[in-house]
Design brief:
7-stranded parallel sheet, 390 residues, 2 domains, alpha/beta, binds magnesium ion, Rossmann fold, DXPR_C, 4-stranded mixed sheet, globular, 11 strands, binds nicotinamide-adenine-dinucleotide
Length: 390
C-alpha cells in the first residue's frame, strides 16, 4: 500500500530533500500534505509537482497568494492557513507518515499533533524534542507513535543499536561532529565571524539556522540532548567526537569493546530514505561512498573553550526541568539576531549562558507551560541581546 505523507516544513532543506526521495518511489509514497511558513512560490511548485491533496501556510497572506496561484494553474490542492491548519494536517487520519522538518520550537505543536495521533513520525526538527523532552517521549509511548530520527547522527545510532535499544549491551554512544566551518579558528578569528561566513557549511547544505548552530557547535549540543531523549541514555553515556570528514555519521560502543559505525557520503537523503522505508531499504539518490578515494578519517576531542555551546547544552540537560527549553529559546533568538547583524558571533554563547543563569527552569507538566517558559526566555534573550549590542 502507498504511504500517505505529510511534510511539515516542505520548503526547507530537509523538506526539499524529502520530496526528492519521495519522487523516486511513486509506487510506495504519495504526498498527502505540504506545509511552510512564508515561501509560497516554492510551495506552489512543490504542490504542482507532487499533486498534494492539501497545503498549509502559517502566514495567511502567503496562503492567499498560494491559493490564487494554484487555482489559476488548475490545481486541486486545497490551501489552508494558520498553525491550527498545520496541526490538523499533521493529525489527519489519511496521513500515515509525518516528516517533522520545521525549524525551531515553531515545530513543537504540529509535531506533537502527529505524535498524539500515533503516526509514523520522521523527526528532523530536533528543537521540538529539546524543548519538550519527557513530555514528547511520554506522548510517543502513550499514543503508540513510531518515532524515527532523521538527524544523520541519530539515524546512524538508530541503525547501529541492537533491537532492544541500549539495554542490549551498549556502553556508550559516540556522537560525531564535523566541527563546523571554524573548527581551526582561534578565539580572535571567531570574534570576527560574519553571518555570510557562518551559513556556508563545508560538508552539508542546510538551512541558515542549523548552519549557524553547526558553526557554534550548538547543533551538537542540541543533538546531545536529542540523543539523551531518543535513546534513553544519561549524559555520561554520550561522547562527542569531532570528525571533520562527516563520513562516519555516529557510532555505538558495546560492552565487549565492539564499536559499530554507520557511514556514507554526507547527504541527508540517506537518513530520509532510511526513515521512510524502515525496516526496508530504498534508493535515496545519494552518491555512494568510495573508500579508495577517501584521503583519511580524522577524529579529535571537541574544544569547549572555543565552542562553549556544547558545554552549555550538556549543563542544561544535566540540570533538568525546562533548562533545555530556555537554552533553545535563547539560542534561537541569538542566532536570529546574529543573522540580522544585531549580535556578534561569540554573543550567541554569551546570551545563552546568561539566559540559563537568569531564568528559572521549573519542571512543567504540560506543553502550554513549557511554551510559556519558551516565551519568557525569548523576552529575556531579547533584552540581553540589546544590552550587548553589536
Ligand atoms: P530550513 O530553514 O531550510 O527550512 C525550515 C522549514 O520550516 C521551511 O519549510 C519553513 O517554511 C518552515 N518554517 C519556518 N518557520 C516556521 C514556522 N514558524 N511555522 C511553520 N513552519 C515554519 O531548515 P532545515 O535546514 O530544513 O532544518 C529543518 C529542521 O531539520 C531543523 O530542526 C534542523 O535542525 C533539522 N535538521 C536539518 C538538517 C539539514 O541538513 N538541513 C540536518 C539535520 C537536522
Ligand atoms: Mg545532525
Amino acid at each position: 500500500m502507498t504511504q500517505q505523507i505529510t511534510v511539515l516544513g516542505a520548503t526547507g532543506s530537509i523538506g526539499q530533500q524529502t520530496l526528492d526521495v519521495v519522487a523516486r518511489h511513486p509506487d510506495r509514497y504519495r504526498i498527502f500534505a505540504l506545509t511552510a511558513a512564508t515561501r509560497w512560490q516554492r510551495l506552489a511548485e512543490q504542490c504542482l509537482a507532487s499533486g498534494a491533496r492539501y497545503a498549509a501556510m502559517t502566514d495567511p497572506a502567503a496562503a492567499e497568494l498560494l491559493r490564487n496561484h494554484l487555482q489559476a494553474a488548475g490545481s486541486d490542492t486545497e490551501v489552508l492557513a494558520g498553525e491550527e491548519a498545520l496541526m490538523a494536517l499533521a493529525a489527519h487520519e489519511q496521513a500515515d507518515t509525518v516528516v517533522a522538518a520545521i525549524v525551531g520550537a515553531a515545530g513543537v505543536r504540529p509535531t506533537l499533533a502527529a505524535v498524539e495521533k500515533g503516526k509514523r513520525v520522521l523527526l528532523a526538527n530536533k528543537e521540538a524534542l529539546v524543548v519538550t523532552g519527557s513530555l514528547f517521549m511520554d506522548a510517543v509511548k502513550r499514543h503508540g507513535a513510531t518515532l524515527l530520527p532523521l538527524d544523520s547522527e541519530h539515524n546512524a545510532i538508530f541503525q547501529c543499536l541492537p533491537e532492544g535499544g541500549v539495554d542490549g549491551g551498549v556502553e556508550r554512544l559516540l556522537l560525531t561532529a564535523s566541527g563546523g566551518p571554524f573548527r581551526t579558528f582561534t578565539s580572535q578569528q571567531l570574534a570576527q565571524v560574519t553571518p555570510a561566513m557562518a551559513v556556508k557549511h563545508p560538508n552539508w547544505d542546510m538551512g541558515p539556522k542549523i548552519s549557524v548552530d553547526s558553526a557554534t557547535l550548538m547543533n551538537k549540543g542540541l543533538e546531545f540532548i536529542e540523543a539523551c531523549w531518543l535513546f534513553d541514555v544519561t549524559p555520561e553515556q554520550i561522547e562527542v567526537v569531532v570528525h571533520p570528514q562527516s563520513v562516519v555519521h555516529s557510532m555505538v560502543a558495546y560492552r565487549d569493546g565492539s564499536v559499530l559505525a554507520q557511514m556514507g557520503t554526507p547527504d541527508m537523503r540517506t537518513p530520509i530514505a532510511c526513515g521512510l522505508s524502515w525496516p526496508e531499504r530504498v534508493e535515496s539518490g545519494a552518491q555512494r561512498l568510495d573508500f579508495t578515494r577517501l584521503a583519511g578519517l580524522d577524529f579529535e576531542a571537541p574544544d569547549t573553550a572555543r565552542f562553549p555551546c556544547l558545554s552549555l547544552a550538556r549543563a542544561a540537560m544535566e540540570s533538568g526541568g525546562t533548562a533545555t527549553a530556555v537554552l533553545n529559546a535563547a539560542n534561537e533568538e541569538a542566532v536570529a539576531a546574529f543573522l540580522a547583524g544585531k549580535l556578534d558571533f561569540m554573543g550567541i554563547p554569551a546570551v545563552v549562558e546568561q539566559a540559563l543563569e537568569r531564568q528559572a527552569a521549573p519542571v512543567c507538566g504540560d506543553v502550554d507551560a513549557v511554551m510559556e517558559i519558551d516565551r519568557q526566555a525569548r523576552g529575556l534573550a531579547g533584552r540581553l541581546i540589546e544590552e550587548r549590542g553589536c
